[in-house]
Specification:
The protein is of the alpha+beta class. Helix content is 44%, strand content 19%. A five-stranded mixed beta barrel has the order 1-2-3-5-4. Strand 1 and strand 2 form a beta hairpin. Helix 8 packs across helix 9 and helix 8 crosses helix 10 (187-199).
Length: 201
């Protein structure tokens, strides 16, 4: 897995970028949120990446923040949502707007995004309602991208993501993690206890 690339920006034609990394040109695909943060051509940048391997191609997706990459990885775990549609969602809404749509069950706002019909919008809401970190704070107000970045370091959310990567369904991973008393436990401790609990059933 390629975690990130650092190099000079050679070209940018949405949704594709080319980054020169020590003489090797990496062609990547990125959402518009990443394009908004790009430096001028010829300057150095660092992008967080996710590699998708298909039978006919290896596609590298790139993001300006770890929060956007986490959102992308969360989206592609939803049944019926592939990398291209996840990129469309990230390009069409900010993380804050998307969180609000999920939290408020706002199907109409989601179907306005290209490629998303009513059934897909409803599936997104059902599957992501309990999985997105920091959808709302204690007062019920929506949190922004800065808060989402903080959530990347939330041991509980990291444990859920890790369990999903191991092949558990998002709903099952969430139940496994929430069943564990989590006071002062690290992500590794939560994962270990969750797996022990699953093995004991």
């Amino acid at each position: 897995m390629i975690g990130f690339i650092r190099g000079k920006l050679v070209s940018k034609t949405p949704p594709q970028l080319v980054v020169d990394v020590q003489g090797v040109g990496y062609e990547v695909e990125a959402p518009m949120t990443t394009f908004y943060d790009l430096p001028p051509l010829g300057e150095e940048l660092k992008l967080f990446t996710h590699l998708v391997v298909r039978e006919d191609a290896h596609i590298l997706f790139a993001f300006s923040t770890e929060a956007d990459r986490m959102m992308f990885r969360t989206l592609i775990k939803v049944n019926g949502v592939g990398p291209k549609l996840a990129l469309t969602i990230l390009s069409g809404q900010s993380a804050e707007e998307f969180h609000r749509c999920i939290h408020d069950n706002d199907v109409q706002a989601l179907v306005r995004l290209p490629g998303i019909g009513k059934k897909t919008a409803e599936r997104l809401i059902i599957e992501l309602r309990d999985r997105l970190p920091g959808v709302a704070d204690a007062s019920g107000s929506s949190l922004g991208v800065s808060s989402l970045k903080i959530a990347v370091n939330n041991p509980k959310q990291e444990a859920i993501s890790a369990l999903c990567a191991l092949g558990y369904k998002p709903q099952d991973a969430s139940k496994m993690v929430h069943a564990i008393p989590q006071e002062d436990k690290s992500c590794e401790d939560i994962i270990r206890l969750a797996l022990q609990g699953a093995a004991g059933k």
